[in-house]
Amino acid sequence: MKAIAQDVYGSADVLQLREVAQPSIGADQVLVQVRAAGVDPGVWICMTGRPYGARVAFGLTKPRVAVRGRALAGVVTAVGSGVRRFQPGDEVYGTSSGGTFAEYTATASGRLALKPPRLSFEQAAAVPISGVTALECVRDGGRVRAGQKVMVIGAAGGIGSFAVQIAKASGAKVTGVCGADKMDLVRSLGADEVIDYTREEVDRAGPSHDVIIDIAGCRPLSLLRRALTPRGTLVLAGGGHDAGGLLGGYTRQLRAPLVSMFTSQHLRGLASRERAQELEELAQLIESGAVTPVVGRTYPLADAADAIRHLAEGHPTGKIVITVDAEEAPRTP
Ligand SMILES: NC(=O)c1ccc[n+]([C@@H]2O[C@H](COP(=O)([O-])OP(=O)(O)OC[C@H]3O[C@@H](n4cnc5c(N)ncnc54)[C@H](OP(=O)(O)O)[C@@H]3O)[C@@H](O)[C@H]2O)c1
């Protein structure tokens, strides 16, 4: 099958479109014909091996898994002997650690859910990493309640475009923070107020937000705390992964619980999980019309490197998605 693979860490130039063996499945696994795959900063981290701490998980000297991509939407073509939740022909979405910039991927059934029928494959592939992270920021990290004032920093990007919609669906009053060219988009997602961060800082109104979800990942904790009410909650999702060093910008996530011990504010990092439960919860929000993925750009599989270059520029609109042409995929044996 065709896949986007790499043998060494590096820039997008190391990615190659090439033939690789179609994966086989274990008893609890599902083989999915990938129709679309989401692009997120985690793909950049696996590709570059930066920040260096990530290599503990992904391979010390070269990527342990050659095929890139993690989020997917596609069609089940085979199921393992222990799988009861799916059958061939089901349209699904979720994640795979075996790589999704490929015609097929094998993944654990517990990482998949049925694709919301309202969504195209491209829209569905936008959800599994970014939508799930946004849901966990709002629901678990922020514990957002109706009537609270919630700020989303990075509101027009992959996670942020979901977080604004999910916070609104929770009954919050939402302030979105984005660049000038994205303000109309963020308003259209439901934000009550929008801050153009190129003109004003997020603490312009003082300690006024009950929950701040920081996705952009580039501001010091002290600045973010100035925009937070005395008993407010700061959720750190983003980490400025390109900041270099062992942990990039993710040192804030380590410091947050320590600072939290000495203040009435709650500061916490968030590490998202990849499992069916959140995908099913999101499917309900999507089917109700409360949440619609924002797909800014799509690229064919062969141009995956360009998709990652665009992401790495740091200002995508909503999600970037790779499309995999079903016509070109070889038949499953
Ligand atoms: N904790 C977790 O489990 C988890 C899971 C997934 C991802 N992440 C991390 O979350 C971060 C964001 O992911 P993503 O998929 O949302 O990325 P993304 O799609 O690239 O979006 C990043 C957003 O940041 C905004 N931005 C850039 N500079 C900014 C600034 N100075 N102030 C405010 N906003 C700024 C950009 O908005 P403009 O275009 O308006 O400038 C862009 O929309 C990454 O660091 C990623 O590694 C964490």
TrEMBL record:
List each copy of the Enoyl reductase (ER) domain by range. Answer: 10-322
Q: Name one Pfam family in it.
A: ADH_zinc_N_2
Q: Which SMART domains match?
A: PKS_ER
Q: Looking at the record's lineage, which domain of life comes first?
A: Bacteria
Q: Quote the InterPro entries the UniProt record gives.
A: ADH-like_N, ER, YIM1/Zinc_Alcohol_DH_Fams
User: What is the name of the protein in this document?
Assistant: NAD(P)-dependent alcohol dehydrogenase
Whose protein is this, by species? Answer: Nonomuraea guangzhouensis
The uppermost taxa in this organism's lineage are: Bacteria, Bacillati, Actinomycetota, Actinomycetes, Streptosporangiales
